[in-house]
Structure formats: structure tokens, C-alpha cells
Amino acid sequence: MAGGGERATWGEGLRFAFGTLSVLRVRVERWDRAAGARAMTAAPVVGVVLGAVAAGAGALVAWRAGGLLGAVTAVGALAALTRGLHLDGLADVADGLGSGKPAEDALRIMKQSDIGPFGVLTLLLVLLAQVAALAGQFGHSVPRGALAVLASAVAARCALGWGCLRSVPAARPGGLGAVVASTVTPAGAAAGTALGALAVAATGLFDGWSALRLPLAVVLGVGCARLLLGRCVRRFGGITGDVLGATAETAATGTLFALALLG
């Protein structure tokens, strides 16, 4: 494994990203901060791939069995493709924030394997919101629902770059959070979000309004994630892997909310 002081290639960063952010079997050649920086910047590429798979599965079910089941399928597929990593982080962060305890105690609560009441409630509400929003999109048309799945998946991975800005420290040593914390430049995070938004916009070119509302929803979703990120940094003193997962789910949900409101 190469040392952290050597510049990583984009290929190494992509393997890092797919190896840590998905169930896809990828040989991760480097596990260091240089590769982590590339991975978090290129994370929207993972969103495109996973989002396309989940969108296809959801669209197929929606076509045959209706929008609600299509929405459940898409949300379930994304959870399966990530081993529930982001949802687990969301629940842990909810328990940490909801505990009202000092940062050190809150971080200890987040490391525990069980899920507390705040985590259960947050998971329930977020999953219900995602399914309801996607059911509405699939109910309008199957292609529209599929594009919403893709947009939410891309937005979730765009949020990761912002969570790893150089101005944001790690809350504790060890784990994925410490490897990728403070590795991404603002320009890199902005470029990743811009490219992700453009990729989503390109898929909606058959409909002029979709080409506008999809990237707008992605940006709004990432904005929601940044609000949570700020709260977590103030509360915990930095980020952890759980915080990154929570911001990803927040971005996805915010994007779906935005699409529902934009019509």
C-alpha cells in the first residue's frame, strides 16, 4: 500500500470510493489520505452508478406493480448497494445529537452497536419521506421516478466532498472519518457537485423542465447536508464516518423533497 505522502491517481481514488461506498467488489490498492481525497472528490461517480442500478430496479417494478412498490424497491436497492452504511450513520448521529451529552460522551454513544430511540425515529421518518417522495415521482411517470432516484443518489455522494473539506477536522482518530477528513479542497468539492449536477441534468434533456429542476434539487439537497454538517462539527468537534453517512442521507432526502416541491 502506497504511503500517504505520494500523490494518488484518479483510478486509485475511484477504487477507494467504490470499495468503501458500495458492495461492489473492487480491489482497493491504497488506503491513505491521498487516495481518500481523490475518492471523496470523485464520489458522485459512485452515485451515478448506484443510482442507475437502483433507478432501473425501481422503474421496472413501478412499470409492472405501481409507483409505491417502485419507490420501495429503489430505496431498498440503494440501501443494499451500500450495506446500509449511510443509514447506519444517520441513526448513530441522531442518537449522538439527541443525547444532549458532551461531545466525548456523544461520540461514545455513536460508536455503540445498538440504535437508540432517536435513531429509530429518524430512520423511520427519513425512509418514509424518501418512499413517499419517490412514489409521487413514479406516480407522475416511470422515467420521472427513475430520474429522481438517480438525482438523490448523486446528491448523497456530492455531500461527501463537502464533509471532507480541509477546514473540517476529524472528531476522533481512527476509522474512515479520520482517513478522509480535511482532505478535499473547496474547489474539488464544488467541482464534484457541479459535475454530478450536470450529469443528472443531462439525463433530463428530453424534458426541459427536468433538465433545470434536477440539478437545482441536487444543489438544494447538498445545501441541506451542509446544514447538518455544520451542526455536527459544532457539536462533536469534527466529522466521523457516521457524520458522513448522515450527510449523505440528508442530501438524498433533501433532493427528493425539493423535487416534490418543484413539481
Q: In words, what does this structure look like?
A:
The chain is globular, with a radius of gyration of 17 Å. The protein is built from twelve helices and no strands. The longest helix has 29 residues, at 208-236. It has helices at 10-21, 33-41, 43-65, 67-81, 85-99, 103-111, 117-140, 142-163, 175-180, 186-203, 208-236, 241-262. The chain is mainly α and 263 residues long.
Low-confidence runs of at least 5 consecutive residues: none
Residue share in helix:
over 70%
Task: Characterize the biggest β-sheet.
Answer: none
* Dominant shape: globular
Radius of gyration, in angstroms, nearest whole number: 17 Å
Strand pairing plus helix content: what structural class?
mainly alpha
Gap from first CA to last CA: 49 Å
In sequence order, what are the helices and strands, one letter per element? HHHHHHHHHHHH
Overall number of strands: 0
- Kindly report the average pLDDT value: 93
> Beta fraction of the residues?
under 5%
Number of helices: 12
